[in-house]
């Protein structure tokens, strides 16, 4: 009889313990608990605390790996509902309905769709899982509070305009699985100071980093074969640029407004420099143009440029107006005419060019000095030759006296 009473008592204790497990506190008021009933309050065993903050959300996979199976982590309803803020279709996030500052992309997502977070001014940090392979066009465009985002190692593509206007983004590292920086991807990221571009990149497209006025340095990988127009326009703090071998054209406005750019290295593969390519690069003092360049343009407003030598096989030169300190220019005989305008080049008076006389009016400062000198000597203003007495035409070039 006594033995039976003991058995009943033991059974009652078991029931009480089970009831205690069931009567856990409400999900929205979780506190740190000693989840092992046999542990004392002074135990050295670490106690796991569940948190409701999205930034510290513990994935289900981590709970399953707990070394002590008797410990359980109770997750609040708020944390559980985080995944419900994402609308995911076939692995693609198509919409986000939350208002969190810190976002962890759900592990089942492999692609972030176009425009999903566009214009969200609340987000500050985004954590992507390694299985995200594509970030769609304009996905984070104008997320003006975004400070940090990790780009996972398996990422294959970043859509155009993806981070345009992310004004607070300070650093970005593109993984080596991405081959193209699409157009406007990081444009107008005003506070971007560091951008790491992987070795395997082949294209940096138009406007990719335009307006990144705090970007201090950029290393263009040797694998790059194309750099688009305006790609680095307005990157005011960049001081040096080395164009990689394989690039054939420096496109229009490519480095326009790079106010601190002092030197640029141009490889033998470059055939042409487009209009306004280095417009208003006011700190650029010297440019060494390789012999491969056939057309030269794009140096308007380079107020520190003092001298330039056009390569021997070039056939065309463009606008150099506003190069206020340009003192000398050497142009090969292969260039027979100049589309160039040397307006506001008051110091340019040392000109070496076989066809200078035919283009003399393109060099206003030089032309003015020559005109004054030759007129005073009763010489032809075009070539300095003497005039025939009767016809008043130049004995050398045949042009008629017009003064």
Descriptive terms for the model:
disordered N terminus, Leucine-rich repeat, LRR (right-handed beta-alpha superhelix), alpha/beta, 4 helices, 403 residues
Return the CATH architecture of the domain at 82-238: Alpha-Beta Horseshoe
CATH topology assignment of the domain at 82-238: Leucine-rich repeat, LRR (right-handed beta-alpha superhelix)
**Helix content, binned percent:** 10-25%
- Gross morphology is elongated
Which structural class should the secondary elements be placed in? Answer: alpha/beta
Main sheet strand line-up = 1-2-4-6-8
Helical stretch count?
A: 4
The H-level CATH homologous superfamily of the domain at 82-238, spelled out, is Ribonuclease Inhibitor
Radius of gyration, in angstroms, nearest whole number:
35 Å
Low-confidence stretches: 1-81
Percent range for β-strand residues: 5-15%
Number of strands: 22
Walk me through this protein's architecture.
By secondary structure, the chain is of the alpha/beta class. The chain has a domain at 82-238: Ribonuclease Inhibitor (Leucine-rich repeat, LRR (right-handed beta-alpha superhelix)). It contains 4 helices and 22 strands. A hairpin with a 2-residue loop joins strand 1 and strand 2 (92-96). The radius of gyration is 35 Å and the shape is elongated. The N and C termini lie far apart (140 Å). Mean pLDDT is 83; it is low at 1-81.
């Amino acid at each position: 009889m006594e033995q039976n009473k003991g058995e009943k008592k033991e059974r009652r204790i078991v029931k009480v313990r089970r009831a205690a497990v069931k009567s856990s506190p409400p999900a929205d008021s979780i506190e740190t608990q000693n989840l092992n009933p046999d542990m004392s309050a002074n135990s050295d065993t670490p106690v796991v605390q569940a948190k409701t903050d999205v930034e510290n959300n513990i994935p289900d996979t981590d709970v399953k790996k707990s070394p002590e199976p008797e410990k359980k982590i109770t997750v609040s309803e708020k944390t559980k509902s985080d995944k419900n803020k994402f609308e995911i279709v076939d692995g693609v996030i198509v919409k986000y309905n939350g208002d969190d500052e810190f976002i962890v992309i759900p592990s089942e997502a492999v692609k972030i769709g176009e425009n999903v977070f566009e214009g969200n001014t609340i987000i500050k940090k985004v954590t992507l899982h390694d299985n995200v392979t594509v970030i769609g066009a304009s996905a984070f465009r104008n997320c003006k509070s975004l400070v940090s985002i990790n780009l996972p190692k398996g990422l294959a593509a970043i859509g155009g305009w993806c981070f345009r206007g992310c004004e607070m983004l300070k650093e970005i590292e593109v993984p080596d699985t991405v081959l193209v920086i699409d157009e406007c991807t990081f444009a107008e990221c005003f506070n971007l100071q560091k951008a790491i571009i992987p070795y395997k990149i082949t294209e940096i497209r138009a406007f990719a980093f335009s307006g990144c006025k705090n970007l201090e340095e950029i290393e263009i990988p040797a694998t790059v074969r194309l750099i688009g127009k305006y790609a680095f326009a307005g990157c005011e703090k960049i001081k040096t640029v080395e164009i990689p071998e394989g690039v054939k054209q420096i496109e229009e406005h490519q480095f326009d407004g790079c106010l601190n750019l002092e030197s640029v290295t141009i490889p033998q593969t470059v055939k042409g420099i487009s209009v306004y390519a280095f417009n208003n690069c006011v700190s650029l003092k010297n440019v060494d143009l390789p012999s491969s360049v056939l057309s030269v343009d794009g140096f308007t407003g380079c107020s520190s440029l003092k001298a330039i030598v056009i390569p021997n096989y070039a056939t065309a030169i463009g606008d150099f107006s506003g190069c206020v300190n340009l003192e000398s220019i050497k142009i090969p005989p292969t260039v027979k005419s100049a589309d160039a305008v040397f307006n506001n080049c008051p110091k340019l008076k040392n000109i070496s060019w076989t066809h200078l006389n035919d283009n003399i009016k393109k060099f206003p400062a030089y032309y003015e000095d020559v005109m004054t000198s030759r007129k005073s000597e009763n010489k032809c203003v075009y070539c300095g030759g003497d005039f025939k007495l009767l016809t008043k035409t130049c004995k050398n070039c045949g042009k008629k006296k017009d003064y």
